[in-house]
Specification:
metal ion binding, 270 residues, alpha/beta, TIM Barrel, Probable cellobiose phosphorylase, hydrolase, eight-stranded parallel sheet, Glyco_hydro/deAcase_b/a-brl, YdjC-like, globular
């Protein structure tokens, strides 16, 4: 039996090279989802490119509080500390989520298929409640988006400490999301150091072997570039080269994995 896997490329619209790489991988059938940094000045012109492929890929909002575009932002350390201390304004965060949802929809023509977060900020305490509220306000008539649950991380990648911290700061996110009627994936993977020395191919083999049906794995590909403004540019190129090559296709066959759009969990008959 083939295992369905949602393979999601993060950071669409962050740059031209990232977006071009993602579009090529979608065209090759190597991705089934991508999440958008809609604050990017490139989003208005790129929205049509990804919408033209909407029949084969889920397109979601990559909720952002840490990557600077036209406005100053706080570093991840700020959000980690303030969220754990519950020292954040839920109303202000809800308004920010609404603004990003609206900018996504303005150029894409409809609401996103799913919501996740840049550096997983969407799943932090207080921020998650603000996001739940924003979604409730915008999806009044439509089926709600599915959500990424970082606390369902099923493999530590190459950094067990980073994995432990992620699960800890996002604890109970999946349970709270499901209590509110959101669909989530039962297993999440793709986290690693994002360093050029990392064995992405070896990690992908481990993730595909471990992943159950309906798993979700994130990735960060982009066309190879020397973009000095992107600290993980080298890793993006390595991911793109691997995901576009024959070795990845062979791994999917070996582990009986089919790259597929997200499938909600079947309802249990009464």
């Amino acid at each position: 039996m083939t295992k369905r896997l949602t393979l999601c490329a993060d950071d669409f619209a962050q740059s031209g090279s990232i977006s071009a790489g993602i579009l090529q991988l979608v065209d090759a059938g190597r991705l089934s989802a991508t999440s958008v940094l809609c604050q990017s000045p490139l989003w208005p012109e790129l929205a049509g490119e990804i919408k033209a492929r909407a029949d084969r890929v889920d397109v979601g909002l990559h909720f952002n509080l840490t990557h600077p575009f036209d406005a100053p932002v706080k570093p991840l350390s700020h959000w980690l500390m303030k969220s754990q201390l519950r020292q954040l304004s839920q109303a202000a965060l809800r308004d920010e989520a609404l603004a990003q949802i609206d900018r996504f929809a303005e150029h894409y023509g409809r609401l996103p298929d799913f919501v996740d977060g840049h550096q997983h900020v969407h799943a932090l305490p207080v921020i998650r409640d603000a996001l739940f509220d924003a979604i409730r306000r915008r999806w009044q008539q439509d089926a709600p988006p599915y959500l990424r649950s970082p606390d369902k991380l099923g493999h530590p990648g190459d950094n067990r400490l980073k994995a432990l911290v992620l699960r800890s700061v996002c604890t109970n996110f999946d349970e709270q999301a499901r209590e509110r009627g959101f669909s989530t994936s039962p297993w999440f993977g793709g986290m690693y150091s994002l360093s050029p020395q990392a064995d992405f191919a070896g990690l992908m083999q481990a993730w595909l072997a471990r992943a159950p049906d309906r798993a979700l794995i994130m990735c960060h590909p982009g066309l190879p570039t020397n973009d000095a403004s992107d600290p993980i540019a080298a890793s993006r190129g390595r991911e793109f080269d691997f995901l576009s090559g024959s070795a990845f296709a062979e791994l999917c066959l070996k582990h009986k994995v089919g790259i597929a759009r997200f499938q909600p969990e079947p309802a249990i008959a009464a």
